[in-house]
């Protein structure tokens, strides 16, 4: 079975479940005017493959933990299960989806850790400092690395010594072969911290990556979401455009817009684009991207969609047609967002993009 047919069958099962749930809920059969196929009440299109399937990741997150030889300064991916206490950290060189550049930076981070007098932070249990590494690249090979560090009780001057050491390693030391475009350092006492909670500190290089996508230059900050497979994302956004039917009479509403790519790539077809996004850095990226590409009909709002959307829709109700695109995080949309969309008569088309169409997405669609 090909990966595409596995995915197709999985989507079919999700739609079956959704339809039977709706039938039970309504006590009537689900009827739509759309063409049907595969025993469903709607049309399920074949899976559209990504043009790039090897080394496609533009972002990889590497952990630090004990390797198979017991060395606690090993950088890679976890293998094993927590239940069996068999977790080890292994190198990622054999993984087909990870580009060589990411593996190279991970290997040099490991070299750095092994020569550092400072201990790594393993699962927060035993103290320690050096934590995970995130590597982001664009299609030109520009590379941003982000290192997280548990500060424990270190004084500022001791922290500065560690920052200086890692910067030196990647600029003039052995790590210089990685040719990083930028190195960020984030002090973090939690599994994940946003820029607001603990700022990403630029140790050297360019603050942003710029990615070419659908003829645009997209600005990406360390904290911002960006689809992991750039060529696959182009296919996704083209599909969104085809489904959306946006034209010069429509407003495009991009809810959970991240770096604003959906809105910016459709701006030339719409009368206006309105984007809403929680992460401030991503909103700044979206504004920068619009300005950089000479796009002037986009407006991006920073904050929670559930807070911003109801007011925003009220101000746009009169005489406009709105196409809404939602692409929420895995936790799904807040009920107030669903309600605001349902209550807005101007919204004639809704496109729901989801990387996890069961679970919360199904709940949102039912709502
Ligand atoms: C899957 S990403 C999609 C980003 C973008 N649409 C794209 O295609 O690249 C989901 C985005 O939703 C944002 N988000 C999560 N909760 C949110 C909320 N309550 N309000 C607004 N944005 C939110 C996240 O920060 C993230 O950028």
Give a short synopsis of this structure.
By secondary structure, this protein is an alpha/beta fold. Helices cover 32% and strands 22% of the residues. Helix 7 (305-314) packs parallel to helix 8.
Per-chain topology:
Blueprint: H1 3-26, E1 59-65, E2 74-79, E3 88-90, H2 100-115, E4 130-137, E5 143-149, H3 156-171, E6 182-187, E7 201-205, E8 209-213, E9 216-220, H4 230-244, E10 250-255, H5 261-266, E11 272-277, H6 280-292, E12 298-302, H7 305-314, E13 321-326, H8 335-343, E14 347-352, H9 360-366
Parallel strand pairs: 5-6, 10-11, 10-13, 11-12, 13-14
Antiparallel strand pairs: 1-2, 1-4, 2-3, 4-5, 6-7, 8-9
Helix pairs in contact: 7-8
GO molecular function: RNA binding; tRNA (uracil(54)-C5)-methyltransferase activity, S-adenosyl methionine-dependent
Pfam family, one: Methyltransf_31
Keywords: Acetylation, Methyltransferase, S-adenosyl-L-methionine, Transferase
